Amino acid sequence: MALTAVFLLTLLLGGCGGPVPRGVGSDVTETGTTGGNPLSGDAAKQYPTAPGDVETVPVTIGPPPDPSLDDLVYRIGPYDLLRVDVFGVEEMSSAGRVNFQGYYTMPLVGSISVNGLTTDEAESEIERLLGSRYLRNPSVSVHVEETANMNITLSGKMNGSLQISGRTTLGQVLASSGGVPPVGKKRQVVIFRATDETRQTPNPQLHAYVVDYQAILEGKLRDPLLVGNDRIYVPPSALALFFDPWLGVLRTYSPVDVQKTVTF
């Protein structure tokens, strides 16, 4: 069973201090808190909960679930560049970007909400609006000329961004970017992903997944599929991530001598 806890935003800041906790490995099965909720099981009797005012991100030790076929279908989002063709009515055809609120502006029709729609769904919605006001039996095609929501960002000991398409895995992205350097921590690569409920919103909530990339290379762990706007963080090899049972959170510790007290 995967470990679900909370991931302090100090992960990226390298915070330290507190008692030396038990290390996080691929065989950890405990469940921690989420922003102050009680620990489950026997752990609730032994450890206090995380402070309610700590800014946290939920975390799972292990790869994220692979997206469904429906999730792999591209959905229009803010700043995408669209081309909308209205068959036989050239003056109503147009091209432009979706605004930050997810609206696309067409001649005569005005602003149309297309955020989160597939191109087929956007075509049906535009045909409905045109048919109700301007045209009889309109035929519309919508093309995404440029995507703004299929980017993957690398940070930490690997930096950069790239666009993905189709079925793209963590291993493929890291390999195509030159591989994790010796100063990077292969055992604890972090994928930050927007939750399903908030993915199409301006400020999505994140969930963190700590993935053992070395195990992927050795064929011992599933290589997870990525989705648009995933953020991959490769921590320095001298930075250790731990599950802190006293707070029920993941924390970072340095220098290396702290890491040496733990066997992964």
TrEMBL record:
InterPro entries: Poly_export, Poly_export_N. Pfam families: Poly_export. Residues 24-64 are annotated as: Disordered. This is Polysaccharide export outer membrane protein. Residues 74-144 form the Polysaccharide export protein N-terminal domain. It comes from the Bacteria. Keywords: Signal. The keyword DNA-binding does not apply. GO terms for molecular function: polysaccharide transmembrane transporter activity. The keyword Transport does not apply.
